[in-house]
Specification:
Blueprint: H1 4-17, H2 33-42, H3 47-59, H4 65-82, H5 98-101, H6 114-125, H7 137-144, H8 151-155, E1 161-164, E2 179-194, E3 199-207, E4 212-218, H9 223-226, E5 232-242, E6 245-249, E7 252-255, E8 266-269, H10 278-292, H11 302-307, H12 313-321, H13 326-356, H14 367-375, H15 383-396, E9 403-408, H16 414-426, E10 431-435, H17 439-453, E11 469-472, H18 478-490, E12 495-498, E13 512-517, H19 525-532, E14 539-544, H20 550-557, E15 561-565, E16 576-579, H21 585-597, E17 601-605, H22 620-631, E18 637-640, H23 646-657, E19 663-666, E20 679-685, H24 692-699, E21 710-714, H25 724-731, H26 735-752, H27 770-786, H28 796-807
Parallel strand pairs: 4-6, 9-14, 9-15, 10-12, 10-13, 11-12, 13-14, 16-21, 17-19, 17-20, 18-19, 20-21
Antiparallel strand pairs: 1-8, 2-3, 2-5, 3-4, 5-6, 5-7
The protein binds adenosine-5'-diphosphate (ADP) and magnesium ion.
């Protein structure tokens, strides 16, 4: 590519040869200015040089040949003094206003004032939009809907996509289907009424010397006056064919001597609301970017930027909005995506470092204790379970707070691992708490954990007595609640199991040393932090059945210690999964009958509690009575949904578990954790309404015992039979595969299901991009090794940006 200065040189030399008649550029030198200016900027020529030249060239046509000669000499001289005849300097230079450079022959860059300017600039960038000139209240309100409030937000309000009109073609080279920009002169333009006068068709012909091209629009009458015969225009659009001839229907059109925003380039397309028009927004963006992007301070330490060859921030921002080429767009997006992941990693790592820097109580247990406890279990642990227990044992003895994520697919047996951790802590008389997302699950944990922990052997005393283990949910009230709260404070209660009721203020522990959180994706980060604060640097064990893909785990949990239980208890058979036609429902009922006659039980899930007004979709309440009356009058059916009172739910669950109900019909409240190994059929009605992670959780309710289990997915209509999620479910039982798919399909926000701190800030980054993640992680680790508190001057901007980044979702993340 020719440098902009070389190009300029050619024009100016030509002018000189032609005696300064302003003929070197068709239409006059000033016509070349917008193109040149943009190129010069893309080329990173010094701003003051660009503005100097632009100003001179704009004056040029109005001057006498003598003065023109002088101007051209000045330009040459200026290029000399700037020493910019070669490629651009790496650093963007401050952008002096046009005024200040006027008349000054040698504008110089004042480096000393930079720091001052920086504070100034970061203040300006925080200006609310409605106070920015050129942004009306209406526009500001419309942008607010996208969370864009300040000038800085606007710089980071990125295009949704791009239309690539950067490929200029002469008319005789055009082909059907091309998406191009054509430059030409309007040869004719006219309008005529069509469709009985309901619409106006505007037609124009342009020529570029190689041929002519027909353009057409509907109802844009003002174009006739706006682009009269002889106007030089750039038109962009897709080539269509009409009666054997190429036409461009409804192209974007602009006069050539204006700043080209909508044509001839890779054009940004922004997310819109009805109040905002694409062109208006694009114009506002252009103005903002041109003025402010070059002034944005780059918070990335130079070492990081150079070692990864990242674009400078201001350039990355402006190239993301108005890219010069696909390549520079890619580079810009890479840089911005890197920023996001890098900030995320820094935050996570810092969190981790500060957490790990605190001391924690040491809990050690003898080998014999573990062996004896495990010998009491009715089954042999899997190797994965043994490994998990071993890792936890080391953590608890380390003197640093454990911060471990235990990840294991549904049914992998996490509960017993938690029970052992609880045993290790209560062995020394300390307290533990287990928080579960639903009261059904809390109650189940209460029962299972009580059974394991109160079990005694021949010479082996129980770990805890029944009264030392208590259940607290929001419906535990009155005297019982008082009793629990007292027991926690005086230390007589050793294990508290419950829902988020655990984090309420009155709950105070005497000596909380272990916090276990089940199905962690169900909790917000602040809830987790709140529970942890009930103790003094307690150990933390977080359990999840959501198999987090490694790339994502690295990002969200940073250095969180990860234990993956990738092994199922023996004897489990994969659940056989089928998608049924809605009319084949009867087959599902037959299977249920068959399984029940063999002593098993079944679940049927519905997407709704009660039918809505439109009457679409199946609901638990309606279907429950239909099934009971018409389909299974001889069987006992239980009904479960979120509108039942907690004690009613417990009652229903208890009956199902005890086998009093053959069938349990339920909404998604049953989704997590419920463990009834005797159930072998899971029928999911309206299956197309559920997400993959949820479907996998439902399916995990069966296949928990040795018997073969079935999962039948029944979508609402035949159209939904092709549903991609349902086919993936049939394809695999592997939670990890499903999680990867889910992540691809729905993105991390949906996938995690919580408002994870920091995640709202991710606009560019794709959390499946392992390459960026690992690079960012490495760099973050380097930085903290060198400067754990981010106190070095070269990290000052970074520290500030890091605060901003994490502000939007305060709380801890691990
Ligand atoms: P999850 O990981 O989904 O929480 P649970 O801890 O609820 O799984 O365990 C699922 C079922 O498997 C329970 O009924 C439990 O008693 C049983 N289980 C756990 N570990 C083993 C094992 N090693 N062998 C056989 N059954 C086991
Ligand atoms: Mg569980």
């Amino acid at each position: 590519m020719q440098s902009p200065l070389e190009k300029l040189n050619k024009f100016l030399e030509l002018e000189r040869e032609q005696n300064y008649e302003n003929r070197a550029v068709v239409g006059g030198l000033d016509k070349a200015v917008p193109y040149w200016e943009r190129e010069a900027r893309a080329y990173q020529l010094p701003e003051e040089l660009i503005s100097f030249i632009v100003e001179k060239l704009q004056e040029y046509p109005r001057l006498q040949p003598e003065q023109r000669k002088e101007i051209i000499q000045q330009i040459f001289a200026q290029i000399e003094t700037c020493g910019a005849s070669n490629k651009a300097p790496a650093q963007l230079v401050e952008h002096p206003s046009r005024h200040s450079s006027k008349g000054s022959q040698q504008p110089s860059v004042k480096k000393e004032t930079r720091e001052e300017d920086n504070t100034q600039i970061s203040k300006i960038l925080q200006t609310p939009l409605e106070r920015v000139s050129g942004v009306g209240k209406k526009t500001a309100d419309a942008l607010e809907k996208f969370g864009v409030r300040t000038l800085q937000d606007l710089l980071y309000f990125f295009p949704r996509r791009y239309d690539d009109y950067s490929r200029l073609k002469p008319i005789n080279k055009l082909k059907y289907g091309d998406e191009v920009t054509v430059l030409g002169v309007i040869q004719a333009i006219a309008s005529r009424p069509v469709r009985d006068g309901k619409m106006q068709l505007i037609e124009a012909i342009i020529t570029d010397g190689t041929g002519t091209l027909r353009l057409s629009w509907f109802n844009k009458l003002w174009y006739v006056n706006r682009f009269p015969k002889g106007t030089q225009v750039a038109v962009s659009g897709k080539l269509d064919m009409y009666l054997g001839k190429l036409v461009m229907k409804d192209p974007e059109i602009e006069e050539i001597d204006r700043e080209q925003l909508h044509t001839s380039r890779i054009v940004p397309v922004y997310p819109l609301t009805s109040e905002l028009n694409q062109k208006t927004l694009r114009r506002l963006m252009y103005k903002t970017i041109m003025q402010w992007a070059p002034k944005v301070q780059d918070f990335l330490p130079t070492s990081v930027r150079t070692s990864l060859k990242l674009l400078e921030l201001g350039i990355a921002i402006s190239q993301t909005h108005f890219p010069d080429s696909q390549d520079s767009l890619d580079q810009a997006r890479w840089r911005l995506a890197f920023d996001e992941i890098f900030l995320l990693q820094l935050g996570v790592l810092r969190q981790k470092l500060s957490w790990k820097s605190l001391p924690a109580r040491v809990f050690e247990v003898p080998d014999s204790w573990i062996e004896q406890r495990l010998a009491l279990l009715p089954y042999e642990l899997t190797n994965a379970q043994k490994r998990a227990i071993q890792e936890i044992r080391i953590d608890l003895a380390s003197g640093k707070p454990m911060d471990r994520l235990l990840q294991g697919d549904v049914g992998s047996g996490k509960t017993i691992v938690a029970a052992m951790a609880i045993g290790m802590v209560t062995y020394h008389g300390a307290q533990a708490a287990v928080m579960a997302p639903t009261s059904i699950l809390a109650e189940q944990h209460y029962r299972n954990l009580s059974r394991v922990l109160t079990q005694s052997g021949d010479d082996l005393p129980a770990i805890l007595q029944p009264e030392q283990i208590r259940l607290l949910t929001s419906d535990v009230r009155g005297a019982e609640r008082e009793d629990i709260l007292n027991g926690l404070q005086n230390g007589s209660v050793k294990l508290l199991i419950g829902t988020h009721a655990l984090i309420e203020d009155p709950v105070q522990f005497q000596d909380l040393q272990l916090v276990v959180i089940d199905e962690q994706h169900r909790f917000g980060v602040s809830q987790r932090a709140a529970l942890r604060k009930k103790g003094n640097n307690p150990h933390l064990l977080v359990m999840t059945a959501t198999p987090i893909p490694r790339s994502l785990a690295l990002t969200i949990y940073g250095d969180l210690d990860l234990t993956v239980m990738d092994e199922m208890p023996p004897g489990r058979q994969p659940v056989e999964t089928h998608v049924l036609h809605p009319l084949e429902r009867e087959r599902a009922y037959q299977l249920i009958r068959h399984e029940i006659s063999n002593g098993h039980q079944a679940y049927i899930i519905y997407p709704m509690v009660e039918q809505n007004e439109n009457g679409d979709g199946l609901s638990v309440v309606q279907e429950f009575s239909r099934l009971q009356k018409e389909v299974f009058p001889d069987l006992n059916i239980g009904m479960m949904h979120g509108r039942l009172k907690p004690e009613e739910k417990d009652e229903v669950m208890a009956r199902f578990r005890d086998g009093q109900y053959h069938i349990l019909v339920s909404t998604s409240v049953i989704e997590v954790g419920v463990d009834v190994p005797n159930a072998t059929v899971m029928v999911i009605e309206g299956a197309n309404r559920f997400g993959l992670a949820q479907l996998h959780q439902f399916r995990g309710r069966v296949g928990r015992g040795a018997a073969k289990s079935y999962c039948l997915l029944i979508p609402e209509s035949d159209d939904a039979l092709e549903n991609e999620r349902l086919s993936v479910m049939v394809e695999t039982n592997d939670g990890f595969v499903l999680a990867e798919r889910d992540l691809q399909q729905r993105g991390p926000g949906e996938f995690l299901g919580t408002r994870q701190a920091g995640f709202t800030e991710l606009k560019m980054a794709n959390l499946t991009d392992v390459h960026i993640i690992e690079k960012a992680r490495q760099q973050a680790q380097f930085i903290f090794q060198k400067d754990p508190e981010l106190q070095l001057p070269e990290h000052a901007l970074l520290a500030k940006r890091l605060e901003e980044f994490w502000q939007n979702g305060k709380g801890d993340i691990s």
